[in-house]
Amino acid sequence: MNEFPLMETSKENIVLFHPHMPAKAAAMVTEVMGTRWIGQGPKVEKFEEEFSKRFGGGRTCISIGSGTDALHLAYILADLQPGDEVITPLFTCTATNIPFLYMGVKPVFADVQAHTLNIDPEDVRRKVTSKTRAIVCVHYGGLPCDMDELQAIADEHNLKIIEDAAHAVGASYKGRGVGEISDFTMFSFQAIKHITTGDGGMLVLKDEALADKARRVRWFGIDRRAKQGGIWQNDITEIGYKYQMTDIAAAMGLAALEEIDAVLDLRKALLAEYEKGLANCRDVTVIGAGYTDRVHAAWMCTVVVERREALQAKLREHNIESAQVHYRNDRYSIFGGRQSGHVNMDALEDKYLVLPLHTKMTVGDVQRVCATLREGW
To answer: Is residue 219 part of a domain?
Structure first.
């Protein structure tokens, strides 16, 4: 098995990921560093408000220290208890599923759809039991899942839906933005996402009544507003965590929101160029291409190929980085080891490959990658 270490950034190299740092980020962070508030302060609230307007459909947004923290908070707010089951993607970043292990909740893995690598609603339906309490879906690469089908299952069995939208800032499904659809939606602001705050996340709540609890749980269980109002000896009645965002991070987020439309336009243009450039490449299938009822957020471009390692080696020879990025979670010991019955994932796990897509790239760079693939390997 070949090993492909991280590629250095240079003029010649097309690296897989690169952070997008907004033009105003440094100045806005510097401004914050001269104020009283560098931890959680007024910039955090401002970022929540602006994010809600742009991506939350006016819903309550709770900014968090990481996307993983935001998912854990969502699982708490969904009232998941030890012994409960949650149907969740087999194929995702482990951050989606590790919080269940904190909580004594059993993740029940569902297979992927072959054409999207998103969770397969048909397999979800097969795996609902009397212990199922929620469905988690991940919009892989930025392409929304089949939300109507998942919502129908949730309605039938009285389940919560929690969207892991770490890849999906700016995506939409049948005219509704991701962030405006389900009970809980998590966005990630990790270093290489559409919006970065260094690390961070946002939890969007459908139920406004959960907002106060969410704010307490993200700050040790303390009613922070009451404390700052002068009630210093307030009680703590629920277990909380140190999951808050800082004003330094929020300043970066606010700077990112100012240019997010341009970022999304560029990323979508790059993905469209991949789809165009590889459309007639017999040996390559672009995952998630061709949908007209949903808008792809274009965080990643993933292809399905035969002889994947040979292609990676060929790309390396042409100074192009590629990788798998995510893996089926049952390959990790913490989840109990490999499971059978995931037909689509079994068929695809040695064939999917992520190609470079980020704001340091040009359409010409994508054309170079596509030309390399069209040469064969």
So the answer is: yes
Which residue numbers in the chain have pLDDT < 50? none
How many other C-beta atoms are found inside a 10 Å radius of the C-beta of residue 287? 23
If asked whether residues 173 and 315 sit together in one domain, one would say no
Q: What pLDDT does residue 235 have? A: 84
Instruction: Give the contacts of 71 (CB within 8 A, at least 6 positions apart).
Output: 95, 96, 99, 162, 164, 186, 201
pLDDT (0 to 100) of residue 1: 61
Alpha-carbon gap, residue 187 to 71, rounded angstroms: 9
The CA distance from 288 to 303, in Å, is 9
Please state, in angstroms and rounded to a whole number, the distance separating the CA atoms of residues 83 and 79: 12
Question: In this structure, are residues 204 and 71 in contact, taking their beta carbons and an 8 Å threshold?
Answer: no
Residues 6+ apart with CB under 8 A from 95: 67, 68, 71, 166
| Plot region of 170 (φ>0 → left; ψ -120 to 50 → alpha; else → beta) | left
| 24 DSSP assignment | T
Whether 209 and 295 map to the same domain: the answer is: no
83: left (phi over 0), alpha (psi -120 to 50) or beta: left
Nearest of 69, 108, 70, 68 to residue 86 by alpha carbon: 108
Q: Indicate the length of the chain as a whole number.
A: 377
Please, are residues 167 and 297 in contact by the beta-carbon 8 Å criterion?
A: yes
CA dihedral 344, 350, 351, 355 (to 10 degrees): 120
Question: What's the pLDDT score for residue 226?
Answer: 73
* pLDDT at position 115: 97
Together in a domain, 186 and 328: no
CATH number at residue 279: 3.90.1150.10
Distances (CA, A) of 172 to 148, 352, 375: 13, 24, 35
pLDDT digits (tens, 9 = 90+) for 101-155: 999 999 999 999 999 999 999 999 999 999 999 999 999 999 999 999 999 999 9
Question: Cα(304)–Cα(24) distance, rounded to whole angstroms?
Answer: 38
Number of domains in the chain: 2
Please give the DSSP secondary-structure letter assigned to residue 163: E
| Rounded (10°) CA dihedral 12, 272, 264, 211 | -120
